[in-house]
Fold this sequence. Notes:
Elements: H1 12-35, E1 44-47, E2 50-52, H2 54-70, E3 75-78, E4 82-84, E5 101-109, H3 111-115, E6 122-129, E7 132-140, E8 145-150, E9 154-157, E10 160-162, E11 174-177, H4 187-198, E12 203-205, H5 210-218, E13 224-227, H6 232-244, E14 248-250, H7 258-261, E15 264-267, H8 269-280, H9 285-291
Helix pairs in contact: 1-2, 4-8, 5-6
Amino acid sequence: MDPGRDLSGGKGEPRLFLAAAVDAAKAGAEVLRHYFRSADLDVRAKEANDFVTRADHESEERILRVLRGRFPDHRILAEESGRVEALDGRGEGGDGGAEAVEWIVDPLDGTSNYLHGLPVFCISIGCRRGENLLAGVVYDPIGDELFTASRGGGAHWNGRPVSVSTGPGLAGAFLATGYPFRARGALDLYLDVFREVFQHAGGVRRCGAAALDLAYTAAGVYDGFFEFRLSPWDLAAGVLLVKEAGGRVSDLDGGEGYFQGGNVVAGGPGVHAELLAAVRSRVSEGTLEEADPRAE
């Protein structure tokens, strides 16, 4: 099967949005493959430990061109461009309010890996109306691995249905995580959590691309995943993938504030329950906010 045409699962509107997301991801992937291991990346630091390259910008331009061409009345939230209003300035529904359709785009998740020539990175594209995620794509352009999900249509990996791990708990679990390089105030709390989790898990990996970690959690490769202070574009597609694959996703308190706080715990039902308990024994949304206040 050509993963570029993977439209497995979904009906109606979510399936339509999924098709656009796949095409947009493939367009951005052409840019990422072109510049990978190139000397022409024009690397700049947005802030400490947060880099952007020519590939990020050009990939995002290609992705947004596809999405705006098909849905000019939709809003876009993209890592490099920020929030882009609909062409009519209002958004679907005419008022740009909570029920407008919005695309959430990361044109290159894993930029540090990318600029060092490590082939562990991806494109992440999610679509939501209000709080409801409708479609999501995570695409690894080097491995040609495409993860797709649509609301009510399940999750797929290169066209094959996937489901989360059926592991009963944290003991022996194979987990993924990410270090809070951009949230140094959270480091001590993160290390407390890591120490607690490490004593029970069978293995913990840090690969440096949160959207890809969530995709592999949806596919049951990882049993679970946890990380602090992510952005909406790191999460949108991966959250839908995990949920459509039968998994659980929460913030540090077990709620659904992960888009607001950027803190996430995900996995199969059994692993999620015990992973969340381990995390909550060391940190909460409140204590993390005290240690590392989010910028307004």
